[in-house]
């Protein structure tokens, strides 16, 4: 018979979010938890994205946990291999291995309103948990567009997040679809190797130079010997980014100044006026994610690269056809077409208190309370939930704020005592989202004249946080019980000492 395990907390996912939650639970003295991970190792994003050139675009000293500084980052913007190794190191250092349940894909979870717990079905047995922390990642499930004729393509096809390292690109004719953050790292990495590279670009990105360099031995020695220097470096990187936020969220006009620098970068790198015109964005700087690379433009200027300023329309045999009619014969198609962000796949697999899935509840757009909990889904918390993304800084800052919220949530449950669940009040969820969306109106993401993956099918930005990371930290420091219904078991026996109630309102 399949094994069933009950735990206090089930964490789904073992990227920065899931591992961070695991560390935080242990620090709160909670050891009765599992981390359910569909892959056979930890690392999330940094396990799955192993494409050539893959690296972070936020400096490593900020793109790492504050509670696990790494004095040995090799570069200012370290590569995938080192970030993945860092997450393995965190797993060992904080004793997380016994909690890991690898190759356990969560297939379905259902709230049991009588037992006040989540029933969880995985690919390797079932679990139940009082609390679920869903850290399945915003950029975890690759999106490949439905291109007519793709099935009949005789060559190689893969997504940037599922790189096929067994396929040798040397001398091949390659179509790269998309010009997002992954594509601009891939293009310069493969351009010298491939025979011909055709880049399909629906919209050109704004690109600034990335100030990447080796971190010297002396710097590393200093950070190891005097750890406060590493903290100071992180603080400086954080502070600079906090100062930039108001340009994105309140005064997009200020971004015009930086836009000029980006234009100068383009002009310096691309001498051919026709190519430069193709690569010049027609929307405001910052509206889509600003991309950082010193190698992207020079790679595009090479003679074995063509830029087709149009999306992919169809595939006919080994010919890829752009929306503008351009036809190119290729051996391989690489999709750098992003992820299921505003339609997160886990939402289809979670059935809440009303019998609806999270996806059904969110059919008009994702909405949560403080980026974490959702009405109708008691004791369910999402790490990097709706409106917690950033346009200019490290997601680890947001994750750590959410871990503060999780820690306080667990404390509140303990203080309330017994079998108990917290359910976000619809009124609180509504109030939070009205506030977030009203602040969104002034942002460059709304007014900058672009269509981006930050927006959902209704054109609403349910992805980004329209403020500083410091503000988000303050907003998530503590759970405000007034925003929750406290749910006790319905069938609690009536005794002289107790007067059961279905729900306790906390005013
Ligand atoms: C190429 C790339 C570069 C990036 N660079 C940066 C950067 O420089 N700075 C920055 O701030 N952010 C960056 N990001 C964003 C990045 O996603 C976040 O910073 C962070 O890594 C997200 O961590 P996470 O744990 O929430 O999600 P992930 O790292 O995506 O981890 C989610 C985990 O959940 C697992 N999972 C999903 N569904 C299930 C299921 N049903 N059952 C079991 N397990 C499941 C997945 O296998 C995965 O291991 C980048 C993203 C990508 C793709």
Global geometry: globular
Please give the alpha-carbon distance between the first and last residues: 46 Å
Count up the domains.
2
Mean pLDDT: 94
Estimate the helix proportion, in percent.
25-40%
Low confidence ranges: 496-507
Q: Total strand count, please?
A: 21
Beta-strand proportion = 15-25%
Largest sheet: 8 strands, mixed
Quaternary structure annotation: single chain
Computed CA radius of gyration, to the nearest angstrom: 24 Å
Describe the structure in your own words:
The chain is an alpha/beta fold and 507 residues long. It has 2 domains: 5-141 and 340-487, FAD/NAD(P)-binding domain, CATH 3.50.50; 150-211 and 235-335, FAD/NAD(P)-binding domain (3-Layer(bba) Sandwich). Helices cover 29% and strands 18% of the residues. The chain has helices at 16-27, 45-48, 80-93, 183-190, 217-225, 227-249, 255-269, 273-279, 296-300, 358-361, 395-416, 426-440, 444-447, 469-475; strands spanning 4-12, 33-36, 100-101, 106-112, 117-122, 125-134, 156-159, 173-177, 196-200, 207-208, 291-292, 305-308, 312-316, 319-322, 327-329, 332-335, 350-351, 380-382, 421-424, 484-487, 503-504. Strands 1, 2, 3, 4, 5, 6, 17 and 18 form an 8-stranded mixed beta sheet that branches. Strand 1 (4-12), helix 1 and strand 2 (33-36) form a beta-alpha-beta unit. The protein is globular, with a radius of gyration of 24 Å. The model is unreliable at 496-507 (pLDDT under 50). This is Baeyer-Villiger monooxygenase. Pfam families: FMO-like (PF00743). Its cofactor is FAD. Keywords: FAD, Flavoprotein, Monooxygenase, NADP, Oxidoreductase. It comes from Streptomyces purpureus.
């Amino acid at each position: 018979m399949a094994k069933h395990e009950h735990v206090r907390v089930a964490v789904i996912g073992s990227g920065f979010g899931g591992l961070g939650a695991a560390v935080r639970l242990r620090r709160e003295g909670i050891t009765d938890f599992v981390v359910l991970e569909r892959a056979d190792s930890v690392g999330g994003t940094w396990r799955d994205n192993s494409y050539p050139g893959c690296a972070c675009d936020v400096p490593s000293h900020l793109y790492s946990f504050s509670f696990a500084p790494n004095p040995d980052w090799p570069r200012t913007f370290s590569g995938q291999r080192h970030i993945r190794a860092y997450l393995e190191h965190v797993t060992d250092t904080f004793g997380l291995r016994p909690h890991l349940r690898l190759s356990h894909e969560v297939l379905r979870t259902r709230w049991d309103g009588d037992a006040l717990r989540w029933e969880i079905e995985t690919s390797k047995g079932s679990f139940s948990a009082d609390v679920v922390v869903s850290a399945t990642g915003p950029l975890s499930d690759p999106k490949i567009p439905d291109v007519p004729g793709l099935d009949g393509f005789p060559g190689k096809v893969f997504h940037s997040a599922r790189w096929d390292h067994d396929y040798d690109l040397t001398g091949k004719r390659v179509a790269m679809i998309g010009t997002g953050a992954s594509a601009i790292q891939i293009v310069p990495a493969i351009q010298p190797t491939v025979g011909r590279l055709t880049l399909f670009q629906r919209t050109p990105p704004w690109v600034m130079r990335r100030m990447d360099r080796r971190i010297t031995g002396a710097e590393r020695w200093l950070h190891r010997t005097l750890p406060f220097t590493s903290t100071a470096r992180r603080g400086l990187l954080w502070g600079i980014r906090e100062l930039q936020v108001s340009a994105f969220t309140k005064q997009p006009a200020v971004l015009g100044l930086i836009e000029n620098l980006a234009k100068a970068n383009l002009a310096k790198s691309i001498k051919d006026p026709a190519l430069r015109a193709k690569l010049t964005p027609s929307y405001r700087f910052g509206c889509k994610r600003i991309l950082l690379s010193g190698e992207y433009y020079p790679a595009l200027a090479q003679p074995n690269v063509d830029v087709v300023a149009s999306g992919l329309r169809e595939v006919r045999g080994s010919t890829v056809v752009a929306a503008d009619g351009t036809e190119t014969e290729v051996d391989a198609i690489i999709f750098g077409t992003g992820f299921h962000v505003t339609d997160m796949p886990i939402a289809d697999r979670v059935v809440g208190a009303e019998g609806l899935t999270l996806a059904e509840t969110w059919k008009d757009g994702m909405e949560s309370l403080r980026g974490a909990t959702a009405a109708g889904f008691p004791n369910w918390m999402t790490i990097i939930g709706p409106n917690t993304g950033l346009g200019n800084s490290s997601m680890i800052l947001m994750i750590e704020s959410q871990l503060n919220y999780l820690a306080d949530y667990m404390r509140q449950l303990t203080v309330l005592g017994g079998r108990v669940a917290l359910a976000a009040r619809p009124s609180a969820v509504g109030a939070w989202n009205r506030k977030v969306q009203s602040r969104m109106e002034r942002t460059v993401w709304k007014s900058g004249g672009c269509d981006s993956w930050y927006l959902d099918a209704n054109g609403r930005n349910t992805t980004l946080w329209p403020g500083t990371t410091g503000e988000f930290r303050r907003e998530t420091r503590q759970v405000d019980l007034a925003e929750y219904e406290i749910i006790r078991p319905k069938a609690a026996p009536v005794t002289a000492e107790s007067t059961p109630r279905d729900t306790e309102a906390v005013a």
